[in-house]
From TrEMBL:
Pfam families: Pkinase. It comes from the Bacteria. One of its GO terms (molecular function) is kinase activity. This is non-specific serine/threonine protein kinase. It comes from Streptomyces thermocoprophilus. Residues 15-274 form the Protein kinase domain. Residues 276-298, 336-398 are annotated as: Disordered. Gene3D superfamilies: Phosphorylase Kinase, domain 1, Transferase(Phosphotransferase) domain 1.
Length: 536
């Protein structure tokens, strides 16, 4: 886990906090020293909702402690060890073992996807962890690569961050009518609100294995609405790299939870693959590929696909998932056929700010997506009562003198360059660009296609270029995404997302570029920028 410098303080007279290891939706994790026992630990500072009244805050506080104590009872080599639970200033802190090493998401971002044998090893470890948790009545509910740690040196796989875990028989910290979890890894029955059980964690594990093998979830789409549609309706296409363990992956990604492959069976098949190099046929039958028309006995299906999508969108909207979900709720056509109705996440036209002779491109500069982001698609901002955009946590609202407003990440600085305006992260790792021009012949799609045709001339090592017709705010738009080699060997390969659309007689182009290893964060920066962009 990466570190960030922060002030040093001591809690409970014992745990000295040093540096911040990471931040998630449920709080901040610190590297700390247990001064009583003289050992390094990780301390999770639980974030409490400051908008609650005193009684609600107390109930939330009590639930947090109850759930943390339940997780502390779990004993398994692949579940994070909870050493202690303390309070300081009425705020709960969970003291855990410190795992030296990054998350699986970090590993994929740095080194790329893993092979089938390593995916099987990770799967066996996590299945064992889940079987132990489920036997104790604890559901994780947020299985994803960012919540799986890989210990340096030993390769030990550790399931962590039970921050939104559900304990059997209890109303949990996060169960207040809001959707919780990461949509790309969330089971369809959880999205519908129909049920949540151990099977839901297994679906998430299936999506995680696909990500480990290919680099991205099979449910990644250009918008939150697209993700929800993919989980509920679209044919599930497992990556080619999953072929050696495809029976397990498809068994876990069975939409009907009653037919989903049990943990014990999945573990048996993966162990057999590790031992022999071959995956035996599953014992239970049938485990059929998950398709939109997958036959399920009506009496056993407790939800409809259409109803499930609507419920999921409503839940996402309640949870503040952003304008994408809200827009989809109002657009039946978008929700039905998967057409994005808000910003897509792929595009890119790259120019480098500050170059004496920047390459001429048909569109804006290069923003940088990062794959190891800890945020989820629900991080996009919304709108205030007067219709102005609002910035999500970790962003600020920039009212640009060039005639627009949008949310940019904290720490990004503005740098104008001719017709283009850049917002740059420290070191220019990420580059967010905006360009406003007069409309051009053929509209946004033609503009992006012309730019893509010149991609090899203007972007060294240009490859994997793709231009897609889409829509933005109900207006025709075009999304351009591509990979290139950067402007120098030191800079290295980069990936760019670029969206172009016309509005009120002007053409707008917004893009983000980043190192290829940081695509996930770049996608978030791009989504937030487009979703909060408002012309003057």
């Amino acid at each position: 886990m990466g570190t960030e410098g922060d002030g040093v303080r001591t809690i409970a007279g014992r745990y000295r906090l040093h540096t911040r290891l990471g931040r998630g939706g449920m709080g901040v994790v610190w590297r700390a020293t247990d001064e009583l026992l003289g050992r390094e630990v990780a301390v999770k500072e639980i974030a409490l909702d400051e908008q609650l009244d005193a009684a609600q805050a107390r109930r939330q506080h009590d639930r947090t402690l109850r759930e943390a104590r339940a997780v502390a009872q779990l004993r398994h080599p692949h579940i994070i060890v909870v050493h202690d639970i303390v309070e300081c200033g009425e705020r709960p802190y969970i003291v855990m073992e410190l795992i030296e090493g990054g998350s699986l998401a970090d590993r994929i971002a740095r080194q790329g996807p893993v092979d089938a044998a390593e995916a099987a090893r990770i799967g066996v470890a996590l299945l064992g962890a889940l079987r132990t948790a489920h036997a104790a009545g604890v559901l994780h509910r947020d299985i994803k690569p960012a919540n799986v740690l890989v210990e340096s040196g030993t390769g030990r796989v550790v399931l962590t961050d039970f921050g939104i875990a559900q304990v059997a028989g209890a109303t949990t910290l996060t169960e207040t009518g809001s959707f919780v979890g990461s949509p790309e890894y969330t089971a369809p029955e959880r999205m519908s609100g129909a049920r949540t059980g151990p099977e839901s964690d297994l679906w998430s594990l299936g999506a995680l294995l696909c990500t480990a093998l290919s680099g991205e979830s099979p449910f990644r789409r250009d918008s939150l609405g697209g993700v929800l549609h993919a989980v509920v309706f679209d044919e599930i296409r497992t990556p080619p790299q999953a072929a050696p363990i495809e029976a397990v992956v498809r068994g876990l990604l069975e939409r009907d939870p009653d037919r989903r492959m049990p943990a014990a069976e999945a573990e048996r098949l993966l162990r057999a693959y590790l031992d022999t190099g071959r995956t035996p046929a599953p014992t239970p039958v049938p485990y059929t590929p998950t398709r939109p028309d997958n036959p399920v006995t009506p009496a056993r299906r407790t939800y409809s696909a259409r109803g499930m999508l609507v419920s999921a969108l409503l839940a996402a909207a309640v949870a503040g998932a952003g304008v994408s979900a809200a827009a989809l709720l109002m657009n039946d056509h978008g929700a039905g056929d998967g057409t994005p109705v808000s910003s897509p996440r792929h595009s890119g036209e790259d120019g480098r700010p500050g170059r004496s002779t920047p390459p001429a491109t048909a569109g804006p500069g290069t923003p940088t997506p990062t794959p190891s982001a800890t945020r989820t698609p629900a991080a996009v901002g919304g709108a205030s009562s007067d219709g102005r955009p609002t910035a999500p946590s970790g962003y600020r609202l920039a009212e640009d003198p060039a005639g627009f407003t949008l949310a940019v990440p904290d720490g990004f600085t503005r740098r104008p360059q001719g017709q283009r305006v850049f917002y740059l992260s420290p070191g220019e790792t990420y580059r967010l660009g905006i360009k406003i021009t007069d409309p051009e012949p053929g509209g946004p799609l033609a503009v992006m296609r012309r730019a893509a045709a010149k991609g090899p001339d203007n972007n060294p090592g240009y490859r994997d270029g793709r231009v897609t017709a889409t829509s933005h705010g109900g207006r025709p738009a075009a999304l351009w995404e591509f990979t290139w080699d950067g402007f120098s060997a030191a800079e290295g390969p980069r990936h760019t997302y670029d969206l172009c659309w016309e509005q009120n007689g002007r053409m707008y182009d917004v893009w983000v570029s980043a190192p290829v290893g940081k695509v996930r964060e770049a996608r978030e920066y791009f989504d937030v920028a487009v979703d909060t962009f408002v012309p003057a």
